[in-house]
């Protein structure tokens, strides 16, 4: 399954964001390995962008396979990746992967499509996991995004002074919408749509896929009144949280 918006939005998002600050992916990699809780010989990353996170992990993981939808990002990743990273171009809803992995990661992006699409992906993850493996998946928290409905802001006034975004929320379907555009032409915008799940909802969805949630790791939260980001938040207040799942 490939949502019609995904290819255009993620290409535009990558073009606007460019390179992350130095050390960003190293910190994220260390956090992932700590949450995995064991030595990792093989890893699968879903939605890998240009491979920056995989490269940050590559010194501590024996073999990494990445899957990315955007062709241009795949080509860039292949030009930069070391020999122990294999890059696959395709949608992880229907891509064929023959290997089993110690750890599977899906960092920031879960929720594309319907509940049935998420269930299919979770079943794929179960199939790709070794019996003693685990997966780490970032999930958007609906209680946070309900409060963000209608909020408009600049993406980064210092580094991207002309790029704006607007959050919207569909209260019936629990889908958050994130629209980006250049302030000189709002008509040329692009939007991503991600389904949000409470911890209980994602727990039940994982159970239907044959997976068990063994840990929850909340991320930070945005205060939309002061427009300040707080690095630490509760599981109910956070903008997203990471789950650890096993067979």
Automatic annotation (TrEMBL):
Organism superkingdom: Bacteria
Would I find Membrane among this entry's keywords? no
Q: Which InterPro entries match?
A: SAM-dependent_MTases_sf (IPR029063)
Give the record's keywords alphabetically.
Methyltransferase, Transferase
Give the matching Pfam families.
Methyltransf_23
Annotated GO MF terms: methyltransferase activity
**Gene Ontology biological-process entries:** methylation
Q: What is this protein called?
A: Methyltransferase domain-containing protein
- Source organism (scientific name): Jeotgalicoccus aerolatus
């Amino acid at each position: 399954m490939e949502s019609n918006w995904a290819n255009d939005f993620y290409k535009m998002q990558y073009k606007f964001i460019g390179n992350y600050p130095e050390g960003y992916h190293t910190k994220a990699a260390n956090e992932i390995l700590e949450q995995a809780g064991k030595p990792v010989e093989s890893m699968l990353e879903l939605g890998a962008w240009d491979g920056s996170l995989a490269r940050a992990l590559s010194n501590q993981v024996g073999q990494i396979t990445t899957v990315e939808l955007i062709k241009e990002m795949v080509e860039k990743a292949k030009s930069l990746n070391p020999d122990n990273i294999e890059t696959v171009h395709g949608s992880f809803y229907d891509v064929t992967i023959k290997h089993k992995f110690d750890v599977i990661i899906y960092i920031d992006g879960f929720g594309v499509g319907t509940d049935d699409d998420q269930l299919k992906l979770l079943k794929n993850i179960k199939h790709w996991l070794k019996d003693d493996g685990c997966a780490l998946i970032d999930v958007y928290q609906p209680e946070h995004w309900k409060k963000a409905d209608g909020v408009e802001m600049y993406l980064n006034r210092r580094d991207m002074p002309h790029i704006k975004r607007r959050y919207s929320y569909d209260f019936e379907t629990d889908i958050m919408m994130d629209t980006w555009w250049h302030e000189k032409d709002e008509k040329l915008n692009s939007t991503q749509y991600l389904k949000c799940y409470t911890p209980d909802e994602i727990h039940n969805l994982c159970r239907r896929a044959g997976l068990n949630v063994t840990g929850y790791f909340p991320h930070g939260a945005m205060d939309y009144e002061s427009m300040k980001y707080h690095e630490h938040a509760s599981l109910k207040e956070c903008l997203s949280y990471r789950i650890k799942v096993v067979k």
